[in-house]
Amino acid sequence: DAKTTQPPSMDCAEGRAANLPCNHSTISGNEYVYWYRQIHSQGPQYIIHGLKNNETNEMASLIITEDRKSSTLILPHATLRDTAVYYCIVRVGGTFNAGNMLTFGGGTRLMVKP
Amino acid sequence: EAGVTQFPSHSVIEKGQTVTLRCDPISGHDNLYWYRRVMGKEIKFLLHFVKESKQDESGMPNNRFLAERTGGTYSTLKVQPAELEDSGVYFCASSQDIQRGTDTQYFGPGTRLTVL
């Protein structure tokens, strides 16, 4: 079962920042926070991941609270093409042992509106 | 660099028939994963290969599903015989070795399987 909680849907105006929250209150010290998105029926697309420090790449920023119990994915200037389902996933790192798969929940359906 | 590719993109078969799905991972990626989404449900893990070895097949639903990865390159997932409940989208993902403490999985476009 998914270890994260996300709002089922959010709206964002085109050109504005989209801030997608995720709660992972039971996260363990060796678990990473991953974000993926699925646009329509395409394959999930990797966005960003982090352990405890904030991370930024060309797609988004990931802000993780100090206690690591929640995080926020930020799309700085949302476009219509960012309309998708966004998945926040926690996953153990440092091992390829059994149980290291990605566990998807329901995600947040982000609708970017003109 | 080519991404993960999957073939076919769509497959429509009748109940009781056999279907084989193929996944070509990103070149050099030792880890290959299969996932699927059945109608109305969440994406679920099926199994994980490290090179040609099955590392974790805890998500395989039953013995009608057989996955192989001979030579540690591409992988096939065979469903025999197919049942109606097998309909869904089958995704493949691949990843390299652990870097910065973890590996990142990159997904293919999926194969949409419809069993009639």
General description of the model:
The complex is a heterodimer of chains A (114) and B (116). Chain A has strands at residues 9-13, 18-23, 31-38, 45-50, 55-56, 61-64, 70-75, 84-92, 108-113. By secondary structure, chain A is mostly beta strands. In chain A, strands 1-9-8-3-4 form a 5-stranded mixed beta sheet, with no helix packed on it. Chain A is globular and about 45 Å long. In chain B, strands 2, 4, 5, 6, 9, 10 and 11 form a 7-stranded mixed beta sheet that branches. A 4-stranded antiparallel beta sheet of chain B has the order 1-3-8-7, with no helix packed on it. Chain B is 0% helix and 48% strand. Chain A binds chain B through residues 2, 32, 34, 36, 41-46, 49, 51, 91, 93-106, and chain B through 4, 31, 33, 35, 42-45, 48, 50, 55-56, 58-59, 89, 91, 93, 98, 101-110, 112.
Topology:
The complex is a heterodimer of chains A (114) and B (116).
Chain A: E1 9-13, E2 18-23, E3 31-38, E4 45-50, E5 55-56, E6 61-64, E7 70-75, E8 84-92, E9 108-113
Parallel strand pairs in A: 1-9
Antiparallel strand pairs in A: 2-7, 3-4, 3-8, 5-6, 6-7, 8-9
Chain B: E1 5-7, E2 10-13, E3 19-24, E4 31-38, E5 44-50, E6 53-56, E7 65-68, E8 75-79, E9 88-95, E10 106-107, E11 111-115
Parallel strand pairs in B: 2-11
Antiparallel strand pairs in B: 1-3, 3-8, 4-5, 4-9, 5-6, 7-8, 9-10, 9-11
